[in-house]
Amino acid sequence: MSPKPEIKPLCHSVADCLDEYFRTLNGHAPRHLYDTILEQVEPPLLRATLRYCDGNQSRAAMLLGINRATLRKKLSQYKISAKA
Asked: How far apart are CA 1 and CA 3, in angstroms?
């Protein structure tokens, strides 16, 4: 039996990406960082969750811990098809 691969917590990947982002700024200050991060992270999170749930919005909303109406609002905001 082969050993289970170690699962790296998501926060490590996020921290690595942010460190790289700040390095590429070359000392320039980022603007609206919070909004920028959300705009970059939310769409792939929503798409991946919908794929995992085979497009079932109720199940996706439950996994995300948000209301189904909130999920629909975010899908519309990012122009994401529920069939993602």
From this structure: 7
